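WP5 quarterly update. Target: F-box domain-containing protein. Source organism: Candolleomyces aberdarensis. Length: 495 aa.
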Amino acid sequence: MEQFPVEIWLSAIEYLDDKELQALIGVSRLFFELGMDRRYQEVEITTGDKKAKEWLTRLLEPQVARRVKKLTVQLIQSLYNTPPTASSSSHRSFGRHIADQLRTVVQKVVRPVTPEPNTKQPMLSDIEVLIEAFPRMVNVADFRIVTWAIPLPARDLFPLYDAAWSAFGGNLKRISICANLNGFEALIASSPNYVKLETLELEFSDLPRIDPAADAAMLTQTVVPFVNKLCPQIKTFKIRSWANLDLSPFFLNVDPFPVLKTTLMRIPFNRALSTDPSGFTKYIHESSKSLTKVALRLSPTGLALDPYIEQSLCDWMEALVSDPRCFAKVKHLDICPTHLAPGMDILHHSIQRTRESIVEFTVRDRYLGPDDVVAVVKGLKASQSLTSLRLNVLSLSAAMFDLMAQTLPGLRTLWLSTGIPENQSSLDLLGNDMKTRRYGNWKLVDLSIWQAGNELDEAIMLAILRSIPSVYRLWEDDAAVRRGDGDSVQIIRFT
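Structure tokens (predicted):
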């Protein structure tokens, strides 16, 4: 067994879960190394959490710390000492008074004992242990830091950042910064040097104040210069914003990304681009020279209360996709076209722009009626490279599967979501209709169908599986697969 090449063992352990691999750690030095690598290659620490101390103690050991490749650190306020409230202080004062009285009585009848000196070291806070452990984590290449819950001045985090950048800042390929603007300012002021960075993710949360002018100044004077320094090397750029923050000043001043391949923007259009979306338009159009993967999740806040709040987003998206530069080389497109009528035009233009390159096409939020599904599927017919399609549909029908199997024979992954059917008879009709179908030439392998957020009724799913013999994997889950064919088809679940 020991004569097998390492590459064979590396391939074999891919089939073992964590518990199985941990059980083999004592078998040999090879399995010890592989098991330890698997266990500690990804570490998540939330300061103040009960498990944080246990993790941090282990990370002080060099043979453990060097295995960490992906590190997530979330700082929370409980890490720091907080002053007692007036009520708790008064309660403790009364307690101390009683204790003093008892001590006086005892000392009158018992000979005093000289207390031994306290030789115990004071307990270190989680952040102090992190600072001590960071120099041992020299192989971290993926770092996520979450500081939005820390209300302290920027200087309090300098020792933490200094230790991190000294240990692995120069090795980082990806960093994800989750903070409010004060948190971004603190990190940027620590002067990190990310010479190997390729993926930059920014996640904005709210400050405990409302000052748009100050926010704009911090974006343009602090965040923009930080990002501009990295623009020439960044291949993946993502922004998520949960804040009441206008990012227009950021996009109006940020430099081009000449080698950008992937972008994800999950920002509410009516907040994040409220004053001037032209900088964001320029960002998408200029980046389209190199972009191959785009996700635009721009649904506005308050949509449930006012459907027409999408109007400005809809108008902007129409103008965006009407430009021939838009999505010119995109292979993976994830888009929310709004619920408004022009949303179908947005989808049509997006399909037209990507028809020569598209591999994966995802439509979110908007539910497509039968005619809309026909329009989208027929529009994708010319996309010979398409292998994955994700849609929300108002209803399921055998006619829809007929169309997809005939029009998109090379499709390998299909994800569909539908709402609650008007009545059970519509589902029964689908099940009966699918019994008469068989799509022998369809190459579909991975099929997910959801109904009102749950897996589609199993009897209906089985009827669909009988008609598509190529399907193997279900609901994007390796633990749910298809077995058999025809009347013997089953859904097998592994635990």
